[in-house]
Amino acid sequence: MNAIQYWNRRTSRLETETVYGGSFVDLLYGNALGFAFADTLLVRKAFSRLYGRLQSSGWSRRKVDPFIQQFSVPREQYEPGPFASFNDFFIRRFRPNLRPFPTDPLTMGAFAEARYLAFRETDTPIEIPIKGLRLDPLSLLGGLKGKERFRGGACLLARLCPVDYHRFHFPDDGQLTTFHQETGKLHSVNPRALVRKPDLFLGNERHVSVLETKHFGALAYVEVGALCVGKIVQTHSQPSFRRGEEKGYFLFGGSTVVVYGEAGAWVPTADLLEHTAQGLETLVELGSPVAKATRKE
User: What is this structure's pTM?
Assistant: First the structure.
C-alpha cells in the first residue's frame, strides 16, 4: 500500500510514517481474506486483552531497547524508567515541564501528542481525504444524551501511532459531567485499515466524556480503542480538572482521540485546517496550540 505521509509541525516538513507492524496491517487489511480473519477473530476484545497481558509481562521488556532503536524514540524527553514490561515503557511519561500548555486562556493546547485532522464545523458528514472516511459526527457519540448540542461545532481528530506518547490530557480547566462507554470491536485505526473499512470508528469500542470547560464551552471527548489495545485507562478520578492534567492512557496499540465542540465556540488553527484540506495529517506536540476560542471571557 501507499506510504503514509504527514506534516511535522515542529520540523516544518513533510515526513513519511514508519508503521509499527506495517506488514501485519497490510496482510490483514490489504485483501479480502485477511480482512475477514481480522473482522471475525482478531478484533474481538479477548484477543486484544490477551495480547495486552503479553505486553505487560516481564518477558516483554526485552522488546524495549530494539523498539527505541528502530523508531528513534528520543530517550532524553522521557522519564528514564526502569521499565518492568513493554507496556510500562509504552505508557512512559514526558519529563516534567517538557510539554507546557498555552498560558493564553483562549488558546487550546493539544490534548495528545499525535497526528491531527481538523474541521471547522460538522453540520454534514466529515470527509477525511487521506482515509476515504465519511463520518457522521454524531454517530461516533453513540448513545450520549444531548449529543445534538455538538452539531455544527468544530472537530479535532488525533491519531496516536504505537511509537507515540500514549497518554491523553485535558485541554482546559473544567468539569467532567458525563461519561459512558460504547462497546464494540477493536479494528486497527491505521489509515490503511480505514481504506478497507471506512466506518470502523463507529464499530470500535470507545469512551465518551462531556467536559464543561472554562474557555471552550462543552466538549465531547472520545477515546477510540483499536486492534491490540489492551485497555483504555481513565486515570483522573475527580469531576474537576485543570488545563494540561492527564485524563488517561491507552495500553499497547495505535489509538485515536476525537474532540467535538459546540457551534461557534472555537476554531482549529489555520495550519491544521489547511493541511487537512490538502489531505494531510499534522504531527503536533502535546500542549502545542490546536485551536482558538471565539468567545470572549
Answer: 0.82
